Amino acid sequence: MSARVLLGLVLALFAPGVFFNPGPRDLSQPPRCQLLLSQTSRGGATFVEPSRQGLVCNPQSNGRESAQVIRVVDGDTIVIAGNRRVRYIGIQAPEMGARPQFYGPEATQANRRLLEGKIVTLEKDVSETDRFGRLLRYVYVDGIQVNAELVREGYARAAAYPPDTRYQECLELLAQEARQSARGIWARR
């Protein structure tokens, strides 16, 4: 076997997402996750997951808690009552910091517009906290999953951080839709 063929096989096996891109996914048909994406009256993404052992995952299911939002830190982090920081699962928004990243102020403002002063529902995936001690959660307000809404509007990218990947395939589809529609961080400059 030639070195070129062997290299091609190695690349195909170990780096399919890096060197081989199978093309865009069909946005109308979510993959294996079987999640249904439906538009809310505000145009946000609401996730409804089919039964898992007889339980339906929605914002009213067990294992969720409600909390008052005290402050919006940036596009993917909030502070809730009890001075607890919450980092959104499955997304990465541009940072603010001393020198804000491109679209950081817009992402923060979008998050603020959705959540500031409101009561939210928090959903845990697998991990309780990240290495900085922030709670890791999916955040819901007014029936909208904020993580998904920020990705759909182009204020954040989908970013997988295993093992917390319950809605990752759907977040990826929303990111693809935002890119194709040139919304937010994906706008053509």
How is the topology of this model organized?
Elements: H1 3-14, H2 16-19, E1 36-39, E2 45-52, E3 55-57, E4 64-74, E5 77-80, E6 84-88, E7 91-92, H3 104-115, E8 119-123, E9 135-141, E10 144-145, H4 146-152, E11 157-158, H5 168-180
Parallel strand pairs: 6-9
Antiparallel strand pairs: 1-2, 2-3, 4-5, 4-8, 5-6, 7-11, 8-9, 9-10
Helix pairs in contact: 4-5
In short:
The chain is built from five helices and eleven strands, in the order H-H-E-E-E-E-E-E-E-H-E-E-E-H-E-H. It has 189 residues and is an alpha+beta fold. The protein has a single domain, classed as OB fold (Dihydrolipoamide Acetyltransferase, E2P) (Beta Barrel).
The total of beta strands comes to: 11
Task: Specify the structural class.
Answer: alpha+beta
In CATH terms, what is the architecture?
Answer: Beta Barrel
Count of discrete alpha- or pi-helical segments spanning 4 or more residues: 5
- What CATH first level would be assigned? Mainly Beta
- CA-CA gap between termini: 46 Å
Global mean pLDDT: 75
Biggest sheet features: 5 strands, mixed, barrel
Q: Report the order of strands and helices.
A: HHEEEEEEEHEEEHEH
* Order of neighbouring strands in the sheet with most strands: 4-5-6-9-8
Number of separate structural domains: 1
Shape: globular
Output the CATH topology. OB fold (Dihydrolipoamide Acetyltransferase, E2P)
Q: Radius of gyration in whole Å, from Cα? A: 18 Å
Share of helix among residues? 25-40%
Low-confidence stretches: 9-25, 27-36, 38-60
Strand content: 25-35%
